[in-house]
C-alpha cells in the first residue's frame, strides 16, 4: 500500500505591490496573480513563473537562487525575507509581496540596496585600514591567522547585504541615517581583523553616536529576520560595550 | 583620525540604561515594602517608621521620606529626558513606525511601542504618586495610606500605576539585558528565552503582589472609612486587628 501522503496542490494568490517611479503614469497598486503551487516551490520560482507566463513587465531581482547574492530581499506577508529561501509551502494561500522599505525603489519588487550599502560602506569606512598597503607585495604569503579568529571573521563576513535587517529595524525605518545592523556588524568585523590597524577611538568616530551603535534600541528585528542567521544582537551589544569603554 | 572624541552619546546611552536599572530595582524593592500590609498593620507601621528613621534616631523624620521621593523623582526626570530622545519625533516617524509595527508582527518591536506608551503614561501617574509622598510624607501608615486609597479614591491611580509601571519595568529590564549582556553568539538565543521567561514570571509575581496589597489597603480603608483621618495606634487598634 502506498503510504506516502500526497499534498493537495494549492492555487496561490500572490498579490504584488506594483509601481515604477520612473514611469510618470505609474501609481502604486496591488496586482493579483494566481500560481499553481509545485513541490518545493520557492517564491523565486513562483515569481519567475508569473513573469514568464503572466506578466513580463513584473520587476524583481535575483542572481544566485541560493541565498548568497542577497538580491531577492522583499517583504513577504509583512516581513522581510529572501524570495529564493522562502518555500511557498511555509506560507498561507494568499501571499502579499512588497519591496523592501528604506531603499530606493527601482520598480515593483526591485530596490537599490547596492546604493544604500555603498553609502553605508563609505560612511563607516568598512575596509581594512593599515599603513603601507600601497607597497604591499601581493605575491608574498599572507601572515597566518588563528583558525578560531578566522572562523569568527568568516561568520561575520557571511553577511550578504540583502537589506532585510534594515527593513526589519524600527529604528532604521524611523531614522534614515541609522547605520543598521549590517553597518554595525561590519564595524565589529573590521575591529576583529588583525590586519586593520584602527583603534577603538577610530571606530568610535564612525559609530559612536545616535546614527551608529547608540541609536540602536535593541528591538531585535535584525537578529530575528536575518536570512543568514547572523549573531547581530551579540555583535551590537559587544560594539556598544567597547564604544562605551573607549 | 585625530579629532577629540565626543563621548556624550556614549554617556547618554549608559545613563539612560543605568537610570532605568536603578528605577527598576527601586520599584521591585518598593513593592515588598508597600506590601508589608499583607503581614498586618503592625508590620506596615514598622516599615513606615523605618523609612522615617524612627528605629535609628528614636523619633520619626518624615522629611527623609520626602527626600527619598525627591531623589526618585529626579531619577525619573533624568530617565524620561534621556528616553525622550528615542521617541518618534515627527508625524513622518510616527507613521513609519506605526506601519512597520503593524506589518512586521514582531513581539520585541511591539514591546518597544508598549514601553513608549507606558513610559509616557508614567510621566503623569508616577509624578502624581511621588508628589503626594513628597508633600505629605507623614501621611503614610496602615490607616493613613488605606484612607487615602479608599476614602481619597487613590486606588484608581494605584491600580493603573501598578500595571503600567511593572509592564514598563519588565520590558525595560529585558531590553537592558539584551542591550548590554555579554552573551556569546552561540548562547544568546538561549539566554534571551530564559530572560524573557524570568521577566514574565517576575512581572506576574509583582502584579499579583501589588493587587493583593492594593485590595488589602482598599478593604482596610473601607472598614476604616467612618474614622478616615484617624491614625493607627498599635496600643488602641492593635488588639482589635
Automatic annotation (TrEMBL), chain A:
Cofactor comment: Binds 1 [3Fe-4S] cluster. Binds 1 [4Fe-4S] cluster.
Keywords: 2Fe-2S, 3Fe-4S, 4Fe-4S, Iron, Iron-sulfur, Metal-binding, Oxidoreductase, Tricarboxylic acid cycle
Cofactor(s) this protein cannot do without: [3Fe-4S] cluster; [4Fe-4S] cluster; [2Fe-2S] cluster
Listed InterPro entries: 2Fe-2S_ferredoxin-like_sf, 2Fe-2S_ferredoxin-type, 2Fe2S_fd_BS, 4Fe4S_Fe-S-bd, 4Fe4S_Fe_S_CS, Beta-grasp_dom_sf, Helical_ferredxn, SDH/FRD_Iron-Sulfur
Recorded catalytic activity of this chain's protein: a menaquinone + succinate = a menaquinol + fumarate
Gene Ontology biological process terms, A to Z: respiratory electron transport chain; tricarboxylic acid cycle
Residue ranges annotated for the 2Fe-2S ferredoxin-type domain, each copy included: 12-101
EC number(s) from the headed UniProt entry: 1.3.5.1
GO terms assigned for molecular function: 2 iron, 2 sulfur cluster binding; 3 iron, 4 sulfur cluster binding; 4 iron, 4 sulfur cluster binding; electron transfer activity; metal ion binding; succinate dehydrogenase (quinone) activity
Domain 4Fe-4S ferredoxin-type, chain residue ranges per copy: 150-179
UniProt key word Iron-sulfur: yes
Quaternary state and interactors: Part of an enzyme complex containing three subunits: a flavoprotein (frdA), an iron-sulfur protein (frdB), and diheme cytochrome b (frdC).
Family: Belongs to the succinate dehydrogenase/fumarate reductase iron-sulfur protein family.
NCBIfam families reported for this sequence: dhsB, PRK13552.1
Protein's UniProt name: Fumarate reductase iron-sulfur subunit
Automatic annotation (TrEMBL), chain B:
Keyword Transmembrane: yes
Binding residue positions for heme b: 30, 79, 129, 168
GO cellular component terms given for this protein: membrane
Protein task: Membrane-anchoring subunit of succinate dehydrogenase (SDH).
Subcellular location, record wording: Membrane
Cofactors named for this entry: heme
Molecular function terms from GO: metal ion binding
Domain of life: Bacteria
TM spans (from-to): 21-40, 60-84, 111-135, 155-177, 197-218
Protein's name in the database: Fumarate reductase cytochrome b subunit
Pfam families in UniProt: Sdh_cyt (PF01127)
Gene3D superfamilies assigned to the protein according to its UniProt record, in alphabetical order: Fumarate reductase/succinate dehydrogenase, transmembrane subunit
Keywords: Heme, Iron, Membrane, Metal-binding, Transmembrane, Transmembrane helix
Coiled-coil region(s): none
Principal subcellular localization: membrane
Alphabetized NCBIfam families for the sequence: PRK13553.1
GO biological process: tricarboxylic acid cycle
Amino acid at each position: 500500500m502506498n503510504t506516502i501522503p500526497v499534498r493537495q496542490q494549492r492555487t496561490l494568490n500572490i498579490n504584488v505591490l506594483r509601481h515604477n517611479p520612473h514611469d510618470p503614469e505609474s501609481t502604486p497598486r496591488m496586482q493579483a496573480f494566481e500560481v499553481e503551487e509545485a513541490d518545493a516551490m520557492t517564491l523565486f520560482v513562483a515569481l519567475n513563473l508569473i513573469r514568464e507566463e503572466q506578466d513580463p513587465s513584473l520587476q524583481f531581482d535575483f542572481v544566485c537562487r541560493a541565498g548568497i547574492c542577497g538580491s531577492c530581499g522583499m517583504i513577504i506577508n509583512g516581513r522581510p525575507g529572501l524570495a529564493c529561501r522562502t518555500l511557498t509551502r511555509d506560507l498561507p494561500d494568499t501571499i502579499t509581496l512588497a519591496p523592501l522599505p528604506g531603499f530606493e525603489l527601482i520598480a515593483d519588487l526591485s530596490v537599490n540596496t547596492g546604493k544604500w550599502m555603498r553609502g553605508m560602506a563609505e560612511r563607516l569606512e568598512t575596509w581594512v585600514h593599515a599603513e603601507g598597503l600601497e607597497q604591499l607585495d601581493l605575491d608574498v604569503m599572507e601572515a597566518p591567522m588563528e583558525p578560531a579568529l578566522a572562523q569568527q571573521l568568516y561568520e561575520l563576513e557571511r553577511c550578504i547585504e540583502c537589506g532585510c535587517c534594515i527593513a526589519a529595524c524600527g529604528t532604521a525605518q524611523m531614522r534614515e541615517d541609522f547605520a543598521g545592523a549590517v553597518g554595525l556588524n561590519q564595524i565589529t568585523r573590521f575591529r576583529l581583523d588583525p590586519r586593520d590597524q584602527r583603534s577603538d577611538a577610530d571606530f568610535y568616530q564612525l559609530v559612536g553616536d545616535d546614527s551608529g551603535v547608540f541609536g540602536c534600541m535593541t528591538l531585535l528585528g535584525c537578529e530575528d529576520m536575518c536570512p543568514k542567521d547572523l549573531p547581530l544582537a551579540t555583535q551590537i551589544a559587544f560594539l556598544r560595550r567597547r564604544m562605551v569603554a573607549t | 583620525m585625530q579629532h577629540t572624541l565626543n563621548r556624550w552619546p556614549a554617556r547618554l546611552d549608559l545613563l539612560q540604561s543605568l537610570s532605568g536599572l536603578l528605577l527598576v530595582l527601586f520599584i521591585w524593592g518598593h513593592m515588598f515594602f508597600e506590601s508589608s500590609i499583607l503581614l498586618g498593620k503592625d508590620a506596615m507601621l514598622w516599615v513606615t517608621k523605618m523609612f522615617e528613621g524612627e528605629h535609628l534616631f528614636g523619633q520619626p523624620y518624615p522629611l527623609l521620606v520626602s527626600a527619598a521621593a525627591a531623589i526618585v523623582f529626579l531619577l525619573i526626570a533624568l530617565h524620561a529626558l534621556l528616553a525622550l530622545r528615542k521617541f518618534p519625533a515627527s508625524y513622518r516617524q510616527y507613521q513609519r513606525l506605526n506601519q512597520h509595527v503593524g506589518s512586521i508582527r514582531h513581539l520585541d518591536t511591539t514591546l518597544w511601542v508598549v514601553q513608549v506608551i507606558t513610559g509616557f503614561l508614567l510621566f503623569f501617574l508616577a509624578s502624581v504618586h511621588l508628589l503626594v509622598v513628597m508633600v505629605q510624607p507623614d501621611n503614610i501608615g496602615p490607616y493613613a495610606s488605606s484612607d487615602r486609597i479608599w476614602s481619597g479614591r487613590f486606588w484608581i491611580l494605584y491600580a493603573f500605576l501598578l500595571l503600567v509601571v511593572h509592564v514598563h519595568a519588565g520590558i525595560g529590564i529585558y531590553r537592558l539585558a539584551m542591550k548590554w549582556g555579554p552573551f556569546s553568539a552561540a548562547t544568546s538565543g538561549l539566554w534571551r528565552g530564559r530572560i524573557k521567561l524570568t521577566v514574565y514570571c517576575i512581572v506576574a509575581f509583582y502584579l499579583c503582589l501589588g493587587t493583593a496589597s492594593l485590595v488589602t489597603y482598599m478593604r482596610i480603608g473601607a472598614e476604616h472609612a467612618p474614622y478616615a483621618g484617624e491614625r493607627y495606634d498599635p496600643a488602641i487598634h492593635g488588639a482589635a486587628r
